[in-house]
């Protein structure tokens, strides 16, 4: 899916802000929207942009691509399992909250500690990392989802 006019405007704004951070490299989830932002910023900075699928959003299984309203109509409060049962509930048969968290932290831990790396990713992985930073329970992950088009700074060595 392409970006709306507003999405394109926000992407340009984010690219500008990323360039100002002067990262040594940019990593993205490999999905189209993150790849486009990462490659544009990397081109401006003349640095590497590479994909790492561990930075992808949660695997929502059969729920993928559906609105929350459609999921609710089909399954009622089942989506609450992402919060209520983070170790065993698989939304649409996809990935548990605990698996999302472990995958995201693995990707973070593999970043080179001696470089300033920008990661273009999605709300779920960022929320998992921010929650870990604060030693928060997985049930609180939803409260850590960042605002659209925001930048979160994390020192991997602080986790």
Describe, in plain words, how this protein is organized in 3D.
The chain has 159 residues and is mostly helical. 42% of the residues lie in helices and 8% in strands. It has a three-stranded parallel beta sheet, covered by helices on one side. It is globular. It has six helices and three strands. Helix 1 crosses helix 2.
Name the shape in a single word. globular
Distance between the termini: 35 Å
Low confidence ranges: none
Report helical residue fraction.
Answer: 40-55%
Radius of gyration: 16 Å
Largest sheet properties: 3 strands, parallel
* Count of β-strands: 3
Which structural class matches the secondary elements?
mainly alpha
Taking all residues together, what is the mean pLDDT? 93
Q: Helix and strand string, N-terminal first?
A: HEHEHHHEH
Quick tags:
single chain, 3-stranded parallel beta sheet, 6 helices
Secondary structure: elements and pairs:
Layout: H1 5-21, E1 25-28, H2 32-45, E2 48-51, H3 68-75, H4 81-84, H5 97-109, E3 117-120, H6 123-133
Parallel strand pairs: 1-2, 1-3
Helix pairs in contact: 1-2, 5-6
What does this entry show, briefly?
The chain is mostly helical. The chain is built from 6 helices and 3 strands; from the N terminus they run αβαβαααβα.
């Amino acid at each position: 899916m392409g970006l709306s006019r507003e999405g394109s405007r926000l992407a340009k704004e984010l690219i500008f802000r990323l360039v100002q951070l002067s990262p040594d490299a940019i990593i993205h989830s490999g999905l189209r929207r993150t790849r486009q932002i990462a490659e544009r910023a990397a081109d401006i900075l003349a640095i590497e942009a590479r994909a790492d699928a561990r930075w992808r959003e949660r695997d929502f299984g059969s729920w993928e691509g559906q609105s929350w309203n459609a999921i609710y109509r089909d399954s009622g409060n089942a989506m609450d399992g992402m919060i209520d049962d983070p170790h065993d509930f698989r939304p649409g048969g996809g990935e548990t909250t605990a698996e999302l968290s472990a995958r995201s932290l693995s990707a973070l831990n593999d970043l080179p500690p001696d470089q300033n790396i920008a990661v273009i990713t999605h709300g779920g992985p960022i929320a998992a990392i921010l929650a870990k930073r604060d030693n928060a329970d997985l049930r609180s992950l939803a409260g850590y989802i960042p605002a659209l088009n925001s930048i979160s700074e994390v020192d991997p060595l602080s986790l």
